[in-house]
From TrEMBL:
Boundaries of every Signal recognition particle SRP54 helical bundle domain copy: 1-83
A GO term from the CC aspect: signal recognition particle
Domain-related comment: Composed of three domains: the N-terminal N domain, which is responsible for interactions with the ribosome, the central G domain, which binds GTP, and the C-terminal M domain, which binds the RNA and the signal sequence of the RNC.
BP term (GO), one: SRP-dependent cotranslational protein targeting to membrane
CDD domains associated with the record: SRP_G (cd18539)
Family assignment from sequence similarity: Belongs to the GTP-binding SRP family. SRP54 subfamily.
Protein name: Signal recognition particle protein
Subunit structure and binding partners: Part of the signal recognition particle protein translocation system, which is composed of SRP and FtsY. SRP is a ribonucleoprotein composed of Ffh and a 4.5S RNA molecule.
InterPro entries: AAA+_ATPase, P-loop_NTPase, Signal_recog_part_SRP54_M_sf, Signal_recog_particl_SRP54_hlx, Signal_recog_particle_SRP54_M, SRP, SRP54, SRP54_GTPase_dom
Source organism: Polynucleobacter victoriensis
Residue span, SRP54-type proteins GTP-binding domain: 98-294
Function recorded in the entry: Involved in targeting and insertion of nascent membrane proteins into the cytoplasmic membrane. Binds to the hydrophobic signal sequence of the ribosome-nascent chain (RNC) as it emerges from the ribosomes. The SRP-RNC complex is then targeted to the cytoplasmic membrane where it interacts with the SRP receptor FtsY. Interaction with FtsY leads to the transfer of the RNC complex to the Sec translocase for insertion into the membrane, the hydrolysis of GTP by both Ffh and FtsY, and the dissociation of the SRP-FtsY complex into the individual components.
Entry keyword set: Cytoplasm, GTP-binding, Hydrolase, Nucleotide-binding, Ribonucleoprotein, RNA-binding, Signal recognition particle
Molecular function via GO: 7S RNA binding; GTP binding; GTPase activity
Length: 442
C-alpha cells in the first residue's frame, strides 16, 4: 500500500524545503499505484493525480515534516476535499410532507437494509414519523424483508403484494402517508444483478411519479472498480441526490467511494458499517481518504507541525537576520522550538506502524540525540560567546566541549551548522522561516 511505497521514497527526499516537479515525480507515481491498488478506477486516478500535482507544486514543507510527509498531507487533504461534503450525514427533508426518499441500486447492494437503517435514524435522532414501502415485486420475500426491518426500526410499514405494479404500490403508499401525516416516506425498489434496461425504466417512472426530495444511490463498497459502471448507469438515468456506500465493515479498500463520487458528482451521505440497523454512519471523508491511502492519521501530524511552528517568533527571527543579528541564542531557540514538537521520534510515532518502522526510527532517535547534544553545547557557552561566535577560539572551544561532555569536533560541527544556517537565512525573505525549519528537521 501507499505507506510502504512512500516510506521507500521518503528517505531520498529529506532536507528539501519545497515540493517541486522533481522531488514529487517519484512520489506521485507511488500515489498513483496506491490509488489503483485501492480499486479506484483508472480515469478517476488520472484526474486525481493531475489535481494533486497542481496542489502540491510550490507547497512549502512545514515544520519537522519531510517533503514526503508533506506530499502525503497534500494527497490526503485533496482526497478529503473531493469526497467531503457538508451534507454528509444529512438528508434534505424540505418538502411538503411526506418528504420522499427513493432508493436505487443493484440487487444485493443493501437497499432494503439501508431503508431500515435510515428509518431508524430518522425516527430516533430526527424524531420523524416514517413510513416504508417496498416496490420490489420480483425478488421472493423482498417485501417481507422490508416489513421485518421496518418493524425493527420502529417505523410504519405499508404492505404491498407481488401481484401489484410498482407504480400502483408507490401511489397507494404516498396517499396513505399523506392521510396519516407521515413526515417521511422511504420507497424501496427492486434491483437486478446487473444494469438492465427494464429496471432502469421502472425506477425512472417511479421517480417521475413520486418526485422525491432525495434519490439515494445505494452501492456496495466491495464492488471496487465495477462500481464505476453501475454509478454511471444510475446517474445517467436518475437525478441522484446522494450516495449510501454500504459494507464498509468488510475489507474493501474504499476506492469505490472516490470513483462513485467522481463519476456522479453527488455527495456520499452515509456509510453502511454493519448488517444491523444501527450500522449506519455519516460518511467521513477524512477517514475514507486514510483508508484509501492505507495509512494512519497523517493529517493530524501535518496539523501538529503547523501549530508548533510559531509564525510570530519566526518573523522576529527573520527580521533579526536581515539586520545581521542572528546569533547562537537564536539558533538555540530554534532548536528548542523543534524539541517542543516532541522531538522527531515523537512525530514519527504518530505515523502508521509500518511507516514508522520503514522510516527508520533509529535514524530519528539518532537525530533527536544530535539535537539535544547541540543544545547542550550551546548551553555551555557564555552569553557573550553566544552573541559573538567569532570569540570562539581553540581554548574556549575546549572548555565548551568539556562542559558539554563532547569532543571539540562536535563543537566545531555545531558552529559550522550555525554558520550554514546563518547563510541560508540570509537568502530567505522575511516570513519564510517555516521552510528553514523544514530543512533543519529533515
Ligand atoms: P438489496 O438487494 O439492495 O435490498 O440488499 P439488502 O439490503 O437485501 O442487502 C444484501 C445483503 O447485504 C444482506 O445480507 C445485508 O445484510 C447485507 N448488508 C447490507 N448492508 C450492509 C452493511 O453495511 N454491512 C454488511 N456487513 N452487510 C450489509
Ligand atoms: Mg431489497
Amino acid at each position: 500500500n501507499l505507506t510502504d511505497r512512500l516510506s521507500r521514497v521518503v528517505k531520498t527526499m529529506r532536507g528539501q524545503a519545497r515540493l517541486t516537479e522533481e522531488n514529487t515525480a517519484e512520489m506521485l507515481r507511488e500515489v498513483r499505484l496506491a490509488l489503483l491498488e485501492a480499486d479506484v478506477a483508472l480515469p478517476v486516478v488520472k484526474e486525481l493525480i493531475t489535481k494533486i500535482k497542481e496542489k502540491a507544486l510550490g507547497e512549502e514543507v512545514i515544520g519537522s515534516l519531510s517533503p514526503g510527509q508533506a506530499l502525503v498531507g497534500v494527497v490526503q487533504k485533496e482526497l478529503t476535499a473531493i469526497m467531503g461534503d457538508p451534507t454528509a450525514g444529512k438528508l434534505n427533508l424540505a418538502a411538503q410532507p411526506p418528504a420522499i426518499i427513493l432508493m436505487a441500486g443493484l440487487q444485493g447492494a443493501g437497499k432494503t437494509t439501508s431503508v431500515g437503517k435510515l428509518a431508524k435514524w430518522l425516527k430516533d435522532t430526527q424524531k420523524k414519523k416514517v413510513l416504508t414501502v417496498s416496490c420490489d415485486v420480483y425478488r421472493p420475500a423482498a417485501i417481507a424483508q422490508l416489513q421485518m426491518v421496518s418493524e425493527q426500526a420502529g417505523a410504519d410499514f405499508f404492505p404491498s403484494t407481488e401481484s401489484q405494479k410498482p407504480s400502483e404500490i408507490a401511489r397507494d403508499a404516498l396517499d396513505w402517508a399523506r392521510r396519516h401525516y407521515h413526515d417521511v416516506l422511504i420507497v424501496d425498489t427492486a434491483g437486478r444483478l446487473g444494469i438492465d434496461e427494464a429496471m432502469m425504466q421502472e425506477i425512472q417512472s417511479l421517480h417521475q411519479l413520486l418526485n422525491p426530495v432525495e434519490t439515494l444511490f445505494v452501492v456496495d463498497a466491495m464492488l471496487g472498480q465495477d462500481a464505476v459502471n453501475t454509478a454511471k448507469a444510475f446517474n445517467d438515468t436518475l437525478p441522484l441526490t446522494g450516495v449510501v456506500l454500504t459494507k464498509l465493515d468488510g475489507d474493501a479498500r474504499g476506492g469505490a467511494a472516490l470513483s462513485v463520487q467522481q463519476i456522479t458528482g453527488v455527495p456520499i451521505k452515509f456509510a453502511g458499517v454493519a448488517e444491523k440497523l444501527d450500522g449506519l454512519e455519516p460518511f467521513d471523508a477524512e477517514r475514507m481518504a486514510s483508508r484509501i491511502l492505507g495509512m494512519g492519521d497523517i493529517l493530524a501530524l501535518v496539523e501538529q507541525a503547523q501549530k508548533n511552528v510559531d509564525i510570530e517568533q519566526a518573523q522576529k527571527l527573520a527580521d533579526k537576520v536581515k539586520k545581521g543579528g542572528f546569533d547562537l541564542n537564536d539558533f538555540r531557540m530554534q532548536i528548542s522550538q523543534m524539541r517542543q514538537m516532541g522531538g522527531l521520534g515523537n512525530l514519527i510515532d504518530k505515523l502508521p506502524a509500518q511507516f514508522a518502522q520503514a522510516a527508520a526510527k533509529q535514524d530519528m532517535s539518532v537525530a533527536d540525540k544530535q539535537v539535544r547534544r547541540t543544545q547542550g553545547i550551546i548551553d555551555s557557552m557564555t552569553p557573550q560567546e553566544r552573541m559573538k561566535p567569532e570569540l570562539l577560539k581553540a581554548s574556549r572551544k575546549r572548555r565548551i566541549a568539556a562542559g558539554a561532555g563532547v569532543q571539540v569536533q562536535e563543537v566545531n560541527r555545531v558552529l559550522a551548522q550555525f554558520e550554514q544556517m546563518q547563510t541560508m537565512m540570509k537568502q530567505f525573505k522575511g516570513g519564510k522561516m517555516a521552510r528553514m525549519l523544514g530543512g533543519m528537521a529533515a
